[in-house]
């Protein structure tokens, strides 16, 4: 079973070439900006998008979602191969997870790099703890560690 | 070292910094920019495979953090994608498989 799932994932990871033309960035931005709570957006305007506000919003997101993925694009339309790989991994685990499209918000895009002291996107938090980016998520998945972690936090 | 021709200046700087920081027993710096939506000859997307005694006993996240730190100036400059395989010699002996990097989806403009 696990072998079959891994083989399927490998196909999913490798079989994404040529999708870019179907994914105009404008569409994903529209979807993602709708995902930002109105209250957060209003607060951002009040605070003139200060760094403190970005940190607060990041803290809220990782605090209220057991698995939180900061990525380029959305679950349905990832805009980067690394982000897509992370989405494919979590989809295959069949656990609930939330995503935020950093392309929709320059403050979060920059803010998350400082928040995690991590220079690249995607970034994954599980149970409030920084796990890493695409390479780490895929390696943990291949070792079976991610499945255990995801099952544990989802059961809580 | 790079996928085509001689390494460019960024690839050379990455190799030099990683060699100095980790004294690796194995080091590959692959310029994967050609697979991405950037002009020919770009040095924007890299994969590094690095095997060093310094990674012995270090957690996966920490191994990646120290590699990112060593290349902080590149990552805050032109390099916007860095895939890392960082292993200790004993881990490398167990498996020297290097997974292919994901294909570009075209939307990750800097």
Automatic annotation (TrEMBL), chain A:
SUPFAM superfamilies: Thioredoxin-like. Residues 1-21 form the signal peptide. The keyword Signal applies. Keywords: 2Fe-2S, Iron, Iron-sulfur, Metal-binding, Redox-active center, Signal. Gene3D superfamilies: Glutaredoxin. Pfam families: Glutaredoxin. Residues 67-131 form the Glutaredoxin domain. GO terms for molecular function: 2 iron, 2 sulfur cluster binding; metal ion binding. GO terms for cellular component: mitochondrion. InterPro entries: Glutaredoxin, GRX_PICOT-like, Monothiol_GRX-rel, Thioredoxin-like_sf. PANTHER family: GLUTAREDOXIN FAMILY MEMBER, GLUTAREDOXIN-RELATED PROTEIN 5, MITOCHONDRIAL. NCBIfam families: Grx4 family monothiol glutaredoxin. This is Glutaredoxin domain-containing protein. The lineage of its organism: Eukaryota, Haptista, Haptophyta, Pavlovophyceae, Pavlovales.
Automatic annotation (TrEMBL), chain B:
InterPro entries: BolA, BolA-like_sf, BolA/IbaG_stress_morph_reg. Residues 90-110 are annotated as: Disordered. It comes from the Eukaryota. Belongs to the BolA/IbaG family. Transmembrane segments: none annotated. This is BolA-like protein. Gene3D superfamilies: BolA-like (3.30.300.90). GO terms for cellular component: iron-sulfur cluster assembly complex; mitochondrion.
């Amino acid at each position: 079973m696990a072998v079959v799932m891994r083989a399927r994932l490998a196909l999913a990871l490798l079989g994404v070439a040529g999708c870019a033309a179907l994914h105009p960035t404008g569409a994903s931005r529209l979807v993602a900006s709708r995902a930002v709570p109105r209250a957060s957006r209003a607060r951002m305007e009040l605070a003139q998008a200060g760094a403190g506000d970005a940190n607060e919003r990041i803290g809220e997101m990782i605090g209220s979602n057991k698995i939180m993925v900061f990525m380029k694009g959305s679950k349905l339309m990832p805009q980067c191969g690394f982000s897509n790989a992370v989405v494919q991994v979590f989809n295959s685990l069949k656990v609930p997870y939330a995503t935020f499209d950093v392309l929709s918000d320059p403050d979060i895009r920059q803010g998350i790099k400082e928040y995690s002291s991590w220079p690249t996107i995607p970034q994954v938090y599980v149970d409030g703890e920084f796990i890493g980016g695409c390479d780490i998520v895929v390696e943990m998945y291949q070792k079976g560690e991610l499945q255990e972690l995801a099952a544990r936090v989802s059961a809580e | 070292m790079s996928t085509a021709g001689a390494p460019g200046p960024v690839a050379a700087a990455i190799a030099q910094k990683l060699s100095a920081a980790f004294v690796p027993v194995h080091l590959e710096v692959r310029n994967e920019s050609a697979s991405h939506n950037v002009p020919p000859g770009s040095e924007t997307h890299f994969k590094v495979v690095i095997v060093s005694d310094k990674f012995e006993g270090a957690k996966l996240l920490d191994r990646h953090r120290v590699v990112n730190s060593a290349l902080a100036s590149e990552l805050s400059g032109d390099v916007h994608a860095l895939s890392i395989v960082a292993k200790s010699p004993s881990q490398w002996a167990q498996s020297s498989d290097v997974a292919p990097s994901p294909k570009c989806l075209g939307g990750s403009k800097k």
